[in-house]
Automatic annotation (TrEMBL):
This is Glucose-1-phosphate adenylyltransferase. The keyword Transferase applies. Pfam families: Hexapep_GlmU, NTP_transferase. HAMAP family: GlgC (MF_00624). The record marks Q59, W98 as: Could play a key role in the communication between the regulatory and the substrate sites. It comes from Salinicoccus hispanicus. Belongs to the bacterial/plant glucose-1-phosphate adenylyltransferase family. GO terms for biological process: glycogen biosynthetic process. The keyword Nucleotide-binding applies. Pathway: Glycan biosynthesis; glycogen biosynthesis. Residues 7-260 form the Nucleotidyl transferase domain.
Length: 385
């Protein structure tokens, strides 16, 4: 399986809806859960599934992401044959090679896939939070003699028009794929996890690349063509936790989900560990005046004050009288004395002055960055709801 299955991990997303969080950072590299980055979940799924040949396709602002992945050691992908290879756009004699769609990204890296001559090609996204055993999906794909298998999850009906919706028969064979339909027929949504028989999908990719009217996208172009040609497509039902952290609110919600008792296995499962590429920091220090309730405190932190239902990354310092609730504090932030923070996301290395009060509404968490900190501080050091 490790030599006949190649995974292509799409990690070039710009993530514009995440605003300041992705201003200079690829979406999969955004910090998450105290000591992780978003991409760590998909990378750990690959490691735990025993898939050891991975092409990581990067594009937007990849510096930090490339550094984080390195040679793939935290996920056991530092090996001579297979392992993880970072695949970036490049120029050729034919011109620019910026990826213009998910399918186009694969076509421009056919040489990487072809050197392994795989039976199956797995297409994954680097910006979702979930734990999934891809070997079970591969078994389902093979048992159904499928040409393509799409992992799917039920989403709330009110959100179904944001996803590709799979309309299936009783045996989960797919007869119709609706990309973000205005009036969805059901709520079974594509997770953006695809398994293709390589020899079946290759000619479709090459043909699509020649189509000037195509968006060169799996959901919009490739999958509908497979259905038109009556290929065997199946939906693989996934019943676990899955979150597309595409907005500030969904990103905040996914972090807060980690503090729920029934979802703590996302970080703490011994059977399915999530591997970080973590820094070597000293143990956290919890002061005498500190009160911590249902929170994650990472190494290297110095904590005074009250921390309630919050996630603090490495190297955070909170001073006496600070009150932090329902918030996410990135690495090396300093929270001054008598500061109040509620429903905020504070980006790395920001220093919140003494006496500041920043309380977000219930509608949308507030992101505090070095660029906008002064907007939330009045002359007296306290502002904002």
């Amino acid at each position: 399986m490790t030599t006949k299955t190649v995974a292509m991990l799409l990690a070039g997303g710009q993530g514009t809806r995440l605003g300041e969080l992705t201003k200079d950072l690829a979406k999969p590299a955004v910090p998450f859960g105290g000591k992780y980055r978003i991409i760590d979940f998909t990378m750990s799924n690959l490691a735990n599934s025993g898939i050891s040949t991975v092409g990581l396709l990067v594009q937007y602002s990849p510096l930090i992401l490339n550094k984080h992945i390195g040679i793939g050691k935290p996920w056991g992908l530092d090996r001579q044959y297979g392992g993880v290879s970072i695949l970036s756009p490049y120029s050729s004699r034919e011109g620019s090679a910026w990826f213009s769609g998910t399918a186009d990204a694969i076509v421009k890296n056919l040489h990487f896939v072809e050197q392994y001559d795989p039976d199956e090609l797995i297409i994954l996204s680097g910006d979702h939070i979930y734990q999934m055993d891809y070997t079970k999906m591969l078994e389902f794909h093979r048992n159904n003699n499928a040409d393509a298998t799409i992992s799917a999850i039920e989403v709330p009906f009110e959100d179904a028009n944001r996803f590709g919706i799979l309309n299936t028969n009783e045996d989960f064979s797919i007869y119709e794929f609706d990309e973000k339909p205005e009036h969805p027929k059901n709520n079974l949504a594509s997770m953006g996890v695809y398994i293709f028989n390589w020899r079946q999908i290759r000619p479709y990719l090459l043909e699509d690349e020649k189509d000037e009217e195509s968006d060169h996208d799996f959901g919009k172009d490739i999958i509908p063509k497979l259905l038109d040609d009556e290929k065997r497509l199946y939906a693989y039902r996934f019943d676990g936790y899955w979150k597309d952290v595409g907005t500030i609110k969904s990103y905040w919600e996914a972090n807060m989900d980690l503090l729920k008792e029934d979802l703590q296995t996302l970080l703490m499962s011994q059977e399915w560990p999530t591997y970080p590429n973590e820094e070597n920091r000293p143990p956290e220090y919890i002061g005498e005046s500190a009160e911590i309730n249902n929170s994650l405190i990472s190494p290297g932190s110095f904590i005074e004050g009250t921390i309630d239902n919050s996630i603090l990354f490495v190297g955070v310092e909170t001073k006496e009288g600070a009150k932090i609730r329902d918030s996410i504090i990135f690495p090396d932030v300093v929270v001054g004395s008598n500061v109040t923070l509620e429903r905020v996301i504070v980006m790395a290395e920001v220093e919140i002055p003494d006496g500041t009060s920043i309380i977000a509404s219930d509608d949308e968490p507030i992101v505090i960055s070095p660029n906008n900190l002064n907007d939330y501080i009045s002359e007296g050091g306290s502002q904002n709801e």
